[in-house]
Amino acid sequence: MNQRVNSVNEKSATDIGAISKDVFGKVAVLFGGNSAERKVSLASGTAVLNALQAAGVDAHKFDPAENPIGDLIALGFDRAFIILHGRGGEDGSMQGALQLLGIPYTGTGVLGSALAMDKVYSKQVWSTLALPTAPYKVLTKDQVNAALKPDYAALLAKLSGVAMVKPAREGSSIGMAKVSQPDELESAVKQALEYDDDVLIEQYINGPEYTVTILNGVALPSIRMATPHVFYDYDAKYNDKTTEYHCPSGLDDTTEKQVGQLALSAFQGLSGRGWGRVDLMRNEHGEFMLLESNTVPGMTETSLVPKAAKQAGLSFEQLVLQVLTSSLE
Fold first, then answer.
1. Catalytic residue among 12, 303, 326, 327
2. Is 209 a catalytic residue?
3. Where is each ATP-grasp domain found (predicted)?
């Protein structure tokens, strides 16, 4: 862990200290948007904007829900800091629009953003790369609405009797549910379909949840989350003050290094770039299982990336500057 922290601090000294803030030019901080995660994006974006301005960067708010994206050219922006969570900002569409406009942006590109946003495609890529992830099934809206409905009892049995139901392309645990009965599974699938046309049904992992932040090719110290909720849901992430965040996570140095390398492999396997976060759970056999990768993680006061950065010796201001440097590549 010490070697990893030193690597981050060395990158901070060289990449940030030696760069004049003028090199960034006029920066549009893209936040808000129209996704189901708009509220979280507004909080994240405000924190990022304030930090960039405090660091002397010429940064300005830009909400795509309120302004046409073409205004970035009209207003003379040189680059964009993407802090839009969910669809329209994290799924490759905004990245593609910025590329067409010729505006450099932070983080992962079009392909990686699209892959990471889709939990099903993420698991398929990881499975191809022989990276560990829990068994799963996928149901589509057409299958659920067909005359012959799915056999929920058989599906649940194939996943060891307990499962997590997730919309394929939502974040912040929106639309998720834990189920252990066929009728619960059917109800949860229908609820998830309100957010997406595809639903991931994943075998439940009975163990602690971890997350690893990736920052410019370095895995930061892992965080272990603990909550009295049934799982680490939206309220546990953003509203409930009883959620516990352990950083250091309590792993020994060897295991910490292993989980960091696994997260880095998972992130890069999905064509991740710049910064992001990989979520994992540890099963009863001590094995780490990949859940998902986030290419535009939260940056609110309760978010995980700033906590990991702090443990690595980076202030919030240094963190956002590190992220901004990814737009220079």
1. 303
2. no
3. 123-325
pTM, to two decimals: 0.87
* The token pair that represents 141 in the structure block: 């809206």
160 is catalytic: no
279 has binding-site annotation: yes
292 annotated as a binding-site residue: yes
Name the 3-class secondary structure at 303. coil
- Domains of the chain, earliest start first: 2-106 (3.40.50.20), 115-132+206-321 (3.30.470.20), 136-203 (3.30.1490.20)
10 flagged as catalytic: no
* 61, β-bridge pairs: 29
Name the band, by pLDDT with cuts 50, 70 and 90, for residue 320: very high
Specify the 3-state DSSP secondary structure of 233.
Answer: coil
Burial class (CB in 10 A: 0-12, 13-18, 19+), 329: exposed
Helices 253-269 and 119-128, axial angle in degrees (round to 10):
110
